[in-house]
Amino acid sequence: MPTPLDPTPSATDEAVPAAANPPGSSGLFQSIEILRRSHTALLRGQRKESGTKAPTVAEIVEFMHRARATGRIIAAPESRDAIQGIVDYWYGILMLGDWKLVGEIGSLNLEEYDLSTSASASIKPAQPESEAELQARDLTRLRAKMRAFDERWAKGSRGLLRRLLLRLFTLSEVTNQARLSQLPKADELLKDSATTDLVRELVDAGLLQTEASAAGPNLAYVLSDERLLKEWEPLREAVKERRSLREMATGWERSGKSVDALLEQGRVLELAKDYVDLIGPEGPFLTESRTASIEKGQRRSRVKSAVIAVLVLSVVVAVWQWREAEVQSELAETRRIEAENSAKNASLEAQKARAAEKEAKEERAKVEEQTKATMALADEKQNLVEDSAKQKVLAAEEKKEAAEKLAEKTLKAQLEAVDRLNQIAMGNRNAVEQLKAITPLLRAEDRSKLEGALSALGFSLTAAESGEETAQKLVEQTSVASPAVAVVAKAEVAPRLVKVLEGMANL
Questions:
Q1: Which pLDDT value is given to residue 223?
Q2: Would residue 392 count as lying in a domain?
Q3: Which of 19, 96, 207, 364 is 20 to 30 Å from 227 by CA-CA measure?
Q4: Residue 322 resides in a domain
């Protein structure tokens, strides 16, 4: 199978103009054998055989120009047809690449035979090819056209191509052999723009051509070569498909129109909608097949509906059971959650109870501590009170003791004073008695002084005895009187009296 050429233009592509037609014999092949060898070399390069190089577009165009020019020295129709087939082949190869250079090539037909060119080139006409060789060359050219179209329509609608091809052939009623059929240009099928584009592609590829319609004055489309029915795969498949229906319809009729021989709903019955040339038992066969298919479809629908109903019921039951299980599961889960929540609540309550107990213990401990502290404080206060009372008692006792001591001291002092007073009084009485005894012995002037002293002493003694004066007063009176007494009795009174008076003064 030929491979598309490299679309990248080379220096050779640009150096060789498409319209350059070499004049004279220098632009043609000297013989058909040389042309074939050159053609073979290009084919080997195109197939990328070992040691070869893929031909460029410029090389192919140059070969086509030289091949067309070679027609000037080839007179035999068979040889000219062979060369023309080679030129058409390479034109189909160029179409695969969709080169802009293709549109500039010009005419593909061989140049007319020129006797002068043939004579000047001293070329002997090649021997005519055999019929087999000519057919092979022509078939090669046809296959190139088919491959070129297949490449261009690779992404097109295969269904559209099939519907068009079904209208371009018919089957013989006797032999079931396919034969070409015309498709009028006014046919309803060609009113669609997509179909019109497809027809244009087939015409450009050389697979479809126009001719006068057998049914009227208008033109009709027809396949360009009857060999396409066997050589072109899409058309071959369409013929096979159409023949298969004819054979099934015939078999159905021969079986007595058995229901078992009818078509079932499927691709074959669906594709049969495109057949417009039904003959003999084909129409009834398709009608019965569609009817049986519909009835079978209805039975299948009923069975399917029943099955679906059973399935739906099963599904419903299963769903109900599943739902019931889900409900039970959810209920169990809810109970489990409730139990867990209850356990958690119980645990929380226990924790709260323990916390409350702990708090109560802590409060009780605090109360006990506070009570202890209060009692301690009370004890301390009581102790302080007791200590204060004790201190007061002690102070009172001390005061009492001090008072008692003071009273005792006072009493002692008083007693001592009384004793002293008694002593003074006793001494004064003795002194008075002695002064009285010596008074007569004194002089008159001394006697008066002494009498004054005696009077004072007597007065003091009287007062002391009556308790009107204190011992101190008595002492003072005695001290006042003593000097006078001492002066008066100094020379005349015995020293004993003077000592008495001095002793009294010292008390």
A1: 93
A2: no
A3: 96
A4: no
Convert 35-49 into a string of H (helix), E (strand) and C (coil). Answer: HHHHHHHHHHHHCCC
Place of tokens 């209850």: 342
Residue 377 has pLDDT above 90, yes or no: no
Q: Classify residue 287: in a domain, yes or no.
A: no
Q: Is 108 helix (H, G, I), strand (E, B) or coil?
A: coil
Q: Given CA atoms 132, 134, 138, 141 in this order, what sign does their dihedral have?
A: positive
Q: What is the distance of C-alpha 347 from the center of its chain?
A: 38
Q: What is the pLDDT of residue 197?
A: 92
Are 201 and 94 contained in the same domain? no
Q: Is the pLDDT of residue 280 over 70?
A: yes
- Give the whole-angstrom CA distance, residue 209 versus residue 180: 12
> Tens digit of pLDDT for each residue in 417-432?
667 767 766 776 777 7
E strand or H helix that includes residue 170: strand 169-171
Shared domain for 143 and 189, answered yes or no, is no
- HSE of 199, CA atoms in CB hemisphere, 13 A: 21
Measured in degrees and rounded to the nearest 5, phi and psi for residue 110 equal -65, 150
Domain termination site, one of 249, 265, 280: 280
Rounded to an integer, what distance in angstroms lies between the CA atom of residue 167 and that of residue 415?
180
Q: Output the six-digit token pair for 29.
A: 């092949």
CB 33 within 8 Å of CB 126: yes
Cβ atoms within 10 Å, residue 353? 11
Q: Which two tokens stand for residue 150?
A: 């297949």
Tell me, yes or no, whether 140 and 17 share the same domain. Answer: yes
Question: Does residue 228 lie in a domain region?
Answer: yes
pLDDT of residue 200: 92
Domain end point (choices 231, 253, 280): 280
Q: Phi/psi of residue 184, each to 5°? A: -55, 145
Domain count, the chain: 3
Domain that holds residue 82: 11-151
Q: Any long-range contacts for 346-354 (C-beta under 8 Å, 24+ apart)?
A: none
Give a three-class secondary structure readout of 61-75: HHHHHHHHHHCCCCC
**Are both 43 and 142 inside the same structural domain?**
yes
Give 460-467's long-range contacts (Cβ < 8 A, gap of 24+). 460/428, 461/425, 461/428, 461/429, 461/432, 464/421, 464/424, 464/425, 465/425
This prediction's pTM: 0.40
Please, which residues bridge with residue 219 across strands?
Answer: 212
